[in-house]
Task: inverse folding
């Protein structure tokens, strides 16, 4: 794997084909779980872990899967891996597991996982596929965390609240009360807040792209 | 009238100026019945709206002057301010106005492009996010023991150290709140209506405020700035839905007069649902739009989570406008109903 390939894959995952901002895949968990930074980061990392292992596994057996039934096979592979993550989170971060609830098993149906398995892993070598899954997962996690930060800050004036769900009671001191005596802005926590914040993020992303496009009029398109 | 005598009231600025003028009876009644606090709210909303409008116009690369002077931002600000409790804290007014102008108006493309009424979006955001502050309604002066001067009202709104007792003395539940609370306590409507907050046929004081809004609305209709379809259908929707429920169980549902003479209904029917941008445009569509909004208002008031439903009803109907307009296209003269040439 050359450095150039590595760069292209990461550029794709983080910006050009960002799952949350450009492809708009996996919006259901993206909107539902991005109420706080901790929730968003946890679900993002869990999804990335599933993606990396699923893409690696799919890529490894890609020559043995009949083309006609590839989707059910991919789903089976993904579902098994999600079950593993589900059980691990239940065992080691139980309070967080309770908060994220149904959205952990639902990683199975997150289209971004299946999309990467079908569009990339089934056509590329395992190393490339794992790197691609990590890049895509990182892109999704970044959007989730930024969205979580916006909504948590606007909604309740804190950052990292709920960190004790992951690291235990003592870590409560790490919760940042950015805006003390904040009244709270319920809309940001509720679903409309998720849609509005995501809309603003997409707009910001497009604006940045448009500006970059104007600066370099004849930008050479990146090989996909 | 022969054509040279037809007055043209069609420019945006003129229409908006007349809308503001038609709101003045309502504002005057508000000050007379509830005290001067509303003037502070109106001023703050106006300043915020103009600042937000100027900033958004600059950001979008539009010239500021023609759009700032078309008065549309001020209309939005006034409609929102009149929907808020007069003693709402300043940040509540600013947040609502900013949301109305920045998100509901300019992010949707500015004047003429907004699919939702900006003032009602601002109101909905506030009632969903800050239910507690949105219930601090001043009671009618006739019922409160003390009243606040203009300066005292400003102090309360800008978060000065107004004694809590003063605030408690001038705020009280609105008639719709009182009805809702009473019904939850298993009282009948007749028992609830004996409370002093209820007046002749609406709420004490509130009914006259509603009448003042009605007067302003009739002025707009007389000037043909609004058409009769939306307000009439809206009021008919309220009247029929409330009347239907009241007819079957007068103990559990308020009388139609009571529902009709809430200030929010008159403001909504004549000033908000008639918004030419976010409302239906065809004549039959306007009837459907208004009637649906009235019906939804009563449904939300009766079974919803909030005491009043005018804002949500209008927003929901705004959402249905493309559908309504598409199915109520008037027949083009010289064609049959389906837009085809009539048989020879």
Result:
């Amino acid at each position: 794997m050359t450095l150039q390939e590595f760069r292209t894959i990461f550029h794709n995952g983080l910006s050009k084909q960002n799952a949350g901002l450009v492809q708009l895949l996996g919006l259901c968990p993206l909107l539902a779980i991005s109420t706080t930074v901790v929730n968003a980061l946890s679900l993002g990392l869990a999804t990335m872990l599933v993606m990396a292992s699923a893409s690696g596994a799919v890529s490894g057996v890609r020559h043995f899967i009949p083309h006609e039934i590839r989707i059910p096979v991919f789903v089976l592979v993904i579902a098994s891996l999600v079950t593993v993550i589900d059980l691990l989170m239940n065992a080691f971060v139980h309070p967080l597991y309770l908060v994220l609830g149904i959205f952990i098993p639902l990683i199975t149906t997150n289209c971004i996982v299946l999309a990467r398995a079908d569009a990339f892993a089934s056509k590329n070598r395992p190393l490339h596929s794992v790197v691609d899954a990590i890049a895509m997962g990182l892109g999704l996690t970044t959007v989730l965390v930024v969205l979580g930060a916006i909504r948590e800050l606007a909604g309740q004036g804190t950052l990292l609240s709920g960190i004790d769900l992951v690291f235990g009671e003592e870590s409560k001191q790490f919760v940042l009360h950015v805006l003390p005596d904040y009244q709270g802005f319920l809309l940001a926590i509720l679903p409309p807040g998720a849609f509005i914040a995501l809309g603003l993020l997409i707009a910001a992303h497009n604006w940045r792209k448009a500006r970059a496009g104007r600066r370099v009029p004849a930008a050479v398109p990146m090989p996909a | 009238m022969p054509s040279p005598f037809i007055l043209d009231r069609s420019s945006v600025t003129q229409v908006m100026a007349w809308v503001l003028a038609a709101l003045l009876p309502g504002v005057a009644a508000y000050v007379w019945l509830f005290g001067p606090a509303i003037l502070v709210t109106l001023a703050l909303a106006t300043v915020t709206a103009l600042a937000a409008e100027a900033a958004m116009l600059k950001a979008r690369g539009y010239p500021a002057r023609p759009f700032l002077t078309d008065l549309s931002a001020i209309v939005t600000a006034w409609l929102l301010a009149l929907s808020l409790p007069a003693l709402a804290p300043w940040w509540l007014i600013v947040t609502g106005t900013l949301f109305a102008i920045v998100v509901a108006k300019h992010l949707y493309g500015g004047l003429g492009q907004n699919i939702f009424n900006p003032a009602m979006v601002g109101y909905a955001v506030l009632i969903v996010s800050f239910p507690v502050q949105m219930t601090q309604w001043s009671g009618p002066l006739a019922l409160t023991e003390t009243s606040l001067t203009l300066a005292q009202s400003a102090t309360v709104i800008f978060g000065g150290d107004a004694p809590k007792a003063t605030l408690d003395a001038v705020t009280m539940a609105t008639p719709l709140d009182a009805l809702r609370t009473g019904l939850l306590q298993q009282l009948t409507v007749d028992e609830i209506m004996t409370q002093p907050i209820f007046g002749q046929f609406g709420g004490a004081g509130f009914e006259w405020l509603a009448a003042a809004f009605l007067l302003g609305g009739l002025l707009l209709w007389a000037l043909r700035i609004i058409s009769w379809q939306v307000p009439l259908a809206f009021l008919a929707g309220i009247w029929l839905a409330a009347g239907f429920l009241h007819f079957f169980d007068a103990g559990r549902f308020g009388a139609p007069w009571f529902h009709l003479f809430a200030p929010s209904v008159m403001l909504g029917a004549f000033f908000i649902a008639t918004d030419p941008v976010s409302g239906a445009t065809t004549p039959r569509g306007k009837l459907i739009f208004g009637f649906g909004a009235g019906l939804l208002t009563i449904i939300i008031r009766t079974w919803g989570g909030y005491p009043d439903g005018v804002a949500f009803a209008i927003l929901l109907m705004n959402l249905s406008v493309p559908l309504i307009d598409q199915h109520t296209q008037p027949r083009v003269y010289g064609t049959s109903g389906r837009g085809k040439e009539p048989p020879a």
